[in-house]
UniProtKB/TrEMBL annotation:
The protein, known as: G-protein coupled receptors family 1 profile domain-containing protein
Native source species: Pocillopora meandrina
Entry GO CC: plasma membrane
Listed SMART domains: 7TM_GPCR_Srsx
Membrane topology classification: Multi-pass membrane protein
Subcellular location: Cell membrane
Keywords attached to this entry: Cell membrane, G-protein coupled receptor, Membrane, Receptor, Transducer, Transmembrane, Transmembrane helix
């Protein structure tokens, strides 16, 4: 096989990719661990919506803790062959975490859609049992689906698997996310107009002032929700787009050499896709006031603990030095 038809990375690129994958993995692991710790330690976050976010955080945590090290190793060793055990393991984990993450994103979106569109129906239907059951189904399905990579080993059959991954892992969840947030946005706009109309209909000055405050507060919340929706969908599409493009090229091209050479681009596309796991904690959690307070409390406790440890170590050292001075006299 000629050098032009190899998927091998250049040495500098492989090292650079390994470093970036390591940084992304660390941020994913640390950020999602803080989210899980915040949910565990904060009673006000023990709700159905936040359990879906916890499931999402577990998936993103595994991306940083398990998948990123696999890609770091692949980059350092420059492993690009489809049949290599390291490639099989990385692709299996990639499919599993992709399905878990995107389906959890869809579950979070659908949960918020039901809560905003029909609150009474939401309270009656979305129970803790159904929440836990749906999360278990997501994880079991993602594991079962990813195991297809162990069965499909023929390089000629792999494109069929990636088509299924693209449809099930990207298209279906994104349709649910788009549908949910489109109706959330419409409902927010409709509620804002209704509140403003009610405020204009108020006759007394005192009541009008109180309604104006309510309108301002509600409008601000709706605007923030709309901005969050834009960030969520924008980041989701932006980071997934490179992998989608690479998958599309590999599926439509009949040039066997190009199919191999484009494997080099897969390393970069994977980095973009996995970096969303480092971003998700801040998009889905940090914009929430309860999460921000929980984060501050966690970091304060961590810094206070470190300060106490340094103080204790310093005091212990001073005591030891004092005893040595007295014994030498």
């Amino acid at each position: 096989m000629s050098e032009e038809c190899l998927g091998e990375l250049h040495h500098i690129s492989s090292i650079f990719l390994a470093v970036l994958h390591a940084i992304s993995g660390f941020l994913s692991t640390a950020g999602n661990f803080v989210v899980l710790l915040a949910i565990y330690q904060t009673p006000s976050l023990h709700s159905v919506s936040n359990y879906y976010i916890a499931s999402l955080a577990v998936g993103d945590f595994l991306v940083g803790a398990l998948l990123s090290p696999l890609w770091v190793t692949k980059s350092v060793l420059n492993v690009w062959q489809n049949e290599h055990p390291l490639t099989v393991a990385a692709e299996l984990m990639s499919v599993q975490t992709l399905i878990t993450t995107t389906f959890n994103l869809a579950a979070v979106s659908l949960d918020r859609y039901l809560a905003i569109i029909n609150p009474m129906y939401y309270v009656r239907v979305v129970t803790l049992f159904r929440c836990v059951f749906s999360i278990a189904v997501i994880w079991l399905f993602s594991i079962a689906f990813s195991c297809l990579r162990l069965v499909i080993t023929d390089p000629l059959d792999l494109p069929k698997l990636w088509i299924a991954v693209a449809v099930i892992g990207y298209t279906l969840p994104f349709v649910i996310i788009s549908y949910s947030y489109y109706h959330i946005y419409k409902t927010a706009r409709r509620q804002s107009r209704r509140i403003e109309a009610e405020a204009r209909a108020v006759s007394t000055v005192a009541a009008e002032a109180g309604s104006s405050d309510s309108v301002a507060s509600e409008t601000k919340r709706n605007r923030k929700a709309a901005n969050t929706i834009g960030v969520i969908i924008g980041i989701y599409l932006l980071l997934a787009f490179p992998s989608m493009i690479v998958s599309g090229i590999q599926l439509v091209t009949t040039n066997g050499c190009l199919k191999i050479r484009i494997i080099r681009v897969w390393f970069w596309g994977a980095l973009c896709s996995f970096s969303s796991s480092a971003v998700n904690p801040w998009i889905y959690a940090a914009r929430n006031r309860d999460y921000r307070r929980a984060f501050k409390r966690i970091f304060k406790c961590w810094f206070a603990k470190k300060t106490r440890e340094r103080t204790t170590a310093s005091t212990r050292a001073k005591v030891v030095d004092s005893i040595r001075e007295q014994s030498s006299m």
